[in-house]
Amino acid sequence: MPSDKRKAASSAKAPGAKKQKPAPLKDEKRERPEGWLQKDVAKQRGETDLSCNQKRIRFIADTQKIKQGSEGLLYWMMRDHRIQDNWALIHAQQLAVEEKLPLHICVCLHVPKSELSTLRHYSFMLKGLEEVAKECKELDIQFHLLRGVPGEVLPGFVSDHGLGAVVTDFSPLRTPLQALESLRKSLPEDIPLIQVDAHNIVPCWVASNKLEYAARTIRGKITKLLPEFLTDFPVVRKHSYTATRPAKPVDWSKTLGSLQLDGTVGEVEWAQPGTAAGSAMLESFIDLRLKHFATHRNDPNSAALSQLSPWIRFGHLSAQRAALQVQRFGKNFSQSVAPFIEELVVRRELTDNYCFYNDNYDNIKGAYEWAQKTLKDHAKDKREYLYTQGDLEKAKTHDKLWNGAQYQMVTEGKMHGFLRMYWAKKILEWTSSPEQALSIALYLNDRYSLDGQDPNGFVGCMWSVCGVHDQGWAERPVFGKIRYMNYKGCLRKFDVAKFETKYCPKKL
Ligand SMILES: Cc1cc2nc3c(=O)[nH]c(=O)nc-3n(C[C@H](O)[C@H](O)[C@H](O)COP(=O)(O)OP(=O)(O)OC[C@H]3O[C@@H](n4cnc5c(N)ncnc54)[C@H](O)[C@@H]3O)c2cc1C
Question: Is 300 a pocket residue for ligand 1 (Cβ < 6 Å)?
Fold first, then answer.
């Protein structure tokens, strides 16, 4: 978490608590006509012919040589659902061109039976993929939507289509890593399986080869490597080799309708899926909100944040693209650019590091020893309020601010970053054990937040409940040495009544 957030609402002694509340922001008009960013980006792409840095690439299977006599090359798209600004696709296309092969992209669609399989998430994902498929058509790349678990459907698909190599992107989470391992085991030995980190600016395994303790231990490593990795992207071009076996067209609305999803967690209005909408959100951030990021980012009533997390989470927007554009067009707001890059690059890439190098990224065993001990020491402390998961889910607590934040998350699929910390810490305070608190925080965050089920969410909850990437603080009941946040701290920080009036639930 950012250091000033850390100081903000924690205790009366915290230095940041003495800061004055920022003045409310006035509505502003944009000076440039909308759509300028996409045009500028297209021009930048046309001006570079860089190829993918080899350090972004890992060979997962033993063989590295593309199978000769094959009929095409596959990019198995897992995490980064976009065409342009995608190093995995850039690399796949380069390999296909070198071998004079057609290029295929596939996504494996599998909906686990889970409370996290919601209409909100799958609709956003599928609509983003519909845009991907449309772009593929224009670029003569075959897009296949496969139904099933990758380990089961991919090997047959690869052999049926005579594919000579599989390129994929990178996620540090358990399910995609297991899928990768399962594919490695079932692919024929002469087919290379190549992974490209298309999500992080500095590839996760290059930034660090170990679990980092905190932002301060990874910041220097990432910053030192930015000149090498924070580069422009070359364009993904119209592919020159046409497939003899084209992909079946996808009926997107029928596909969405056929999935077993929880429709009670519905689509949100403020975030339209896809790369174009993600770019538009980035553009509006640069034009309207970036200048306020330095001063108002901890005020949930102010429009000062980028709001980019859903598009980054689903890979519709590349974080590298966001960093490049903000640096390029934010020259007049350097005080905002620096903390934004800290969040977007250092804090975000730290979460991939945590999940990649810590198998227990979503349970208490993943916390540092001091944190596990202090939570255990205070496990039996009397809780002033005790709520069930059902009470919390329905925003039925005594705290109107908490209820408002929960209500916004349930209805709009988002919660302000500052409130997310307060929200999760209160769950620790109001439930019977840290294990239960963590499990409820993860469940609610991942079920309702559009950007949920992401390393940022695992680490956000682990930071709040278990002190991950944090330090020990003055000991107190229930929390032990885990950092505390309270309502009074929020009152000092922003206009709590205004937020409560806007969001305190009518009924959930
Ligand atoms: C309890 C808790 C749960 C969280 N759950 C999620 C989640 O499910 N998904 C998610 O993307 N983020 C999560 N975060 C991190 C952070 O709150 C959000 O990324 C941020 O609020 C998203 O809003 P924004 O895009 O306007 O962020 P901005 O402040 O504009 O930041 C830009 C980008 O930087 C990254 N970022 C910002 N803050 C953090 C952070 N603290 N750690 C890592 N990366 C960060 C995000 O990709 C974000 O889109 C959580 C934090 C906490 C404390």
Answer: no
- Compute how many other C-beta atoms are within 10 angstroms of the C-beta atom of residue 142: 22
Q: Give the strand pairing for 72-76 and 103-109.
A: parallel
Q: Whose CA is nearest to atom 33 of ligand 1?
A: 344
- Distance from the Cα of residue 201 to its chain's centroid: 13
Q: Which two tokens stand for residue 68?
A: 């000769």
Band of pLDDT at residue 48, cut at 50, 70 and 90: confident
The candidate with the shortest Cα–Cα distance to 153, out of 121, 116, 186, is 186
Cα–Cα nearest to 159, from 196, 123, 194, 187: 187
pLDDT at 13: 40
Among protein residues, the one with the nearest Cα to ligand 1's atom 37 is: 343
The pLDDT tens digits of the residues spanning 341-371 come to: 999 999 999 999 999 999 999 999 999 999 9
What would the two tokens of residue 81 be?
A: 């659902």
For residue 421, the ligand 1 atom closest to its alpha carbon is: 53
Q: Name the strand (E) or helix (H) holding 57.
A: strand 57-59
Mean pLDDT of the region 122-130: 98
Give pLDDT, residue 503: 94
Which of 10-19, 237-246, 417-426 has the least mean pLDDT?
A: 10-19
Ligand 1 pocket residue status of 200, Cβ below 6 Å: no
Residue 81 in contact with ligand 1 by CB distance below 6 A? no
H/E segment holding residue 166: strand 163-168
Sheet with 72-76, side-by-side order of all strands: 57-59, 193-196, 163-168, 72-76, 103-109, 142-147
CATH number for the domain formed by residue range(s) 3-22+363-503: 1.10.579.10
pLDDT at 436 over 60: yes
**Amino acid, single-letter form, for residue 307:** Q
DSSP 200-211: -SS-HHHH-SS-
In tens, the pLDDT along 142-159 reads: 999 999 999 999 999 999
